[in-house]
Structure prediction request, 462 residues.
Amino acid sequence: MDKLAQLRLRFLPWVIAIAMFMDTLDSTIVGVAIPSIANSFGINPVNMKLALTSYLLSLAIFIPISGWLADRYGEKRIFLIAMVVFTLSSIACALSRNLDMLILFRLIQGFGGALMMPVGRLIILRTYPREDYVKAMGSVILPGMIGPALGPTIGGIILHITTWHWIFMINVPVGIIGVIIGWFLIPDSTQITRPPPFSWTGFILFSLGLSMVTFAMAILGDNFEWSEYALILGGVATLLLLMYAHVSKKQKYPLFNLNLFKQPTFFSAMVISFISRIGTGAMPFLLPLLLQILWGKSPLYSGIVFIFMAAGMMSTRVFINQKLLHRYGYRRLLIIDIVLLTIISMNLCWFSTPKPIFLLYITVFFIGVLTSQLYMSLGTLYPAHLNESEYSQGTSIASTIQQFSMGCGVAIAAISLHLIAKLMHIPMLTASVFFWTFVVLNTIGLTSLFFVMQLDKEVGKQ
Prediction:
């Protein structure tokens, strides 16, 4: 084995891991900077939600195209292009003069991120022999897991030192180094093929439908006086998504194989995943607003809270293992997890007014523990009854739902803030409004129990 091959096997996972970390970090790092950016743009902080959801929406839309592009043009070329797009769009985000510019460049940034994640995993899969794959992928997955949890913390540290622009500029040196090292370490693509025809019709219908759903919710979160426009957008979005479902059934190679939803375990896992991520997706938006506006704390202070959530997520590797699933099955463990997560998350209502900070640390730590266990369980549940040939489509659907549901969490949180304030005839960013917003989000999460109950009791015990 030559020296370059040895370096590749040793350091390639870390190149991919850095890209994964940047990608997932940017899904939440903006949350802690919302009050600062809103003040810079001269707008209401709640109206900044599209700066978060636009990135997640772009991830959800473009993840399905990544595998086809990698097969058609080579995974090395697509990965490096994705890193360049991500880096340049980060610079553009930092230079944005208003919210519209920031949303546009966050969409482009999400496009780069959507290509980096799945193509990076594909590079590992095609570079390492089967016996080394799990070890290599372990180095890649962990940074991707803790990135969203550490985003607000890193953002808080940056804002404590300098201005909000640097939460985007920090990506630039990392991106440049990643592209240079990746150019030498990522092997040239040897499996460039002519993949099946891509469903451009399905892609256009699906992406337009998903975008209109997102912007309809954004309108409701901004101003209920425009609710008729939101309803029109929502109606058009529903029509487009129904058209997509109709077209995909007639295509030999659809964007998504919707027949997978006929498998009961897969269907339940996807619905549970969507509902449960609404609450966790809203936290990087709500908690910084709560701590900075109601508690009067600094961005650094609010960012540190998320360190405890990240610690909780990582701790599950210590005391939770596969033996629990084999012994009790998915259904029982998911019921326990969701009930406990709802009870502990309801404590966030109590923090709508200032309380001892160590109690908040304890609360978010256990939220991190239970959230990580929930995601780990769902991540192994959805492919439980799929054929090996269906894994790729199943993973693509799961990734899209994951990103879109987190964006919906932010949008639903903003809608709740506006609606509750309007119903109570009080200012929006007040303790009572935050209290009932947390109640709404936790109630939504609890409804996932209905779909957990549809699972076979023996799933996971086999």
Q: What stands out?
A: The chain has a mean pLDDT of 83. The domain at 1-194 is CATH 1.20.1250.20 (Growth Hormone; Chain: A;).
